[in-house]
Amino acid sequence: MANARATFTEGRVARHILVMTSTIALSLLAVFLVDILTLVYVAKLHDPVLLAAVGIAKVLIFFNGAIASGFIIAAASVLSERISERETPGFARLTGSLMLMVMIASGLTAAVQLALVFPVTHMLGADDVTYPVVRSFIWLTLPFTVAQSAMQMSAQILRTTGDSRRALWVVLSGAATLAVADPLFIFVLGLGIKGAGLAYALSAVVSASLGAFWLRKRVGLLFSTDWALLREHMRVTFKIALPAIVANLATPVGLAYLFSSLAAYGTSTLAAMAVVDRVMQFAYCAFFSLPTALAPVLGQNIGARRDDRVGTAIVFTRRLVVAYGLAVWGVLILSSGLIADLYELEGPGRAMFVAFCQIGGGLWAIIGLDFVAISVFVTMDRSWLVAAFAWARATLAAVPFIYVGTHLFGGSGALPGMFAGNALIAIISIFTASLTAKRFFQRRAQPA
């Protein structure tokens, strides 16, 4: 497989990190921006029930993505070490196995969610008025998370092999499709929120098709019938994917408690939470890109035994996170009122959103360090620490902090409370990652 080479073991480490992070962040930014526009379109229908319905449905979509993300993170580590060690024979079969695993996992998750749609959505705050709208949107979108997961996996494989440009275009193809289809289906065809669901489905199919095409042409994609080989691929992948999946499952748990706490303050807070989710994704897309951007850089250099470059990458990324986080905080403070007006937020919902911008933004400059720690744990054989810290965030750093925040400041105190707990966990996590890297280098330096 001629296109697989250890690209990240040569040249400036900072440049590789900036290129990887910026291209992944740009793709996420495009997706999030179109998602935000979708929410704006739904808001223009002047019904807060529709906004609340989209917010609740997105929690289930996020849960499905959390399962797929475990395999995608694992793919970066498994493939990068194979490339750096020049283990290219059978590469196409490995990519085929990775695609098959992520599609099966996403499909099974979607099937379970659809079977339990009534109790789950009511747990998240849906009432008798909101539920029919939530149910319709979920049935239109959730089955196509399988295609969405396939698109994300194909983009990750392309990035890991050094083809960041095509990986970017795979993601942008879905965003572009959604940008055109959303207003067409929602307003021109008059389909309302059902049009938003159909637009999501179409964008997932288009981007997944392009990803599979380029993956097959540039890297190789073979679905092997050799079950022994598939089991071996599953064994290697699950070693990293399972802890990542367990970690990702923690976030919906924390979000579920947050949504149930906000439901007591009315529909306006649930609508505001949907807006917060989009703004947070848009503002901190660089943070969300770090695990998939940094892991291949660390993995290739670990495989090539370039420990000096590994250390340089970790230090540079930590500084980048803090600088970026502080800059975004300033922008959120200045634009909080304008964004609230754009989404027509009022009452408790507006107060909650403004509190997120003024307080939560500063805490996210610390929370971002946790994404650096994730990359360290995944690539240095400490994947279960990712799960441990994720569940600490979702329980110890969420439930008591949200409880205190809501009792002291009402609905507007929920998010700052949760982010304060998350920031505390992030400090502990990055400190543990530093110790992990130090011990990893010490073990490598010892003679066999």
How do the helices and strands line up, and which of them pair or pack?
Layout: H1 13-43, H2 48-84, H3 91-115, H4 117-123, H5 131-141, H6 145-160, H7 164-188, H8 193-219, H9 227-263, H10 267-283, H11 285-303, H12 307-342, H13 347-367, H14 369-379, H15 383-394, H16 399-409, H17 414-445
What would you note in describing this structure?
The protein has one domain. It has 448 residues and is mainly α. 57% of the residues are buried. The chain starts with 12 loop residues before the first helix and ends with a helix. The protein has 17 helices and no strands.
How would you summarize this macromolecular structure in one to three sentences?
By secondary structure, the protein is mainly alpha-helical. The chain has one domain (11-441).
Counting DSSP E segments of at least 2 residues, the number of strands comes to 0
Oligomer: single chain
Question: What global shape is seen?
Answer: globular
| Distance N to C terminus | 32 Å
What is the domain tally? 1
pLDDT averaged residue by residue: 87
For the biggest sheet, the summary is: none
Question: What's the order of the H and E elements?
Answer: HHHHHHHHHHHHHHHHH
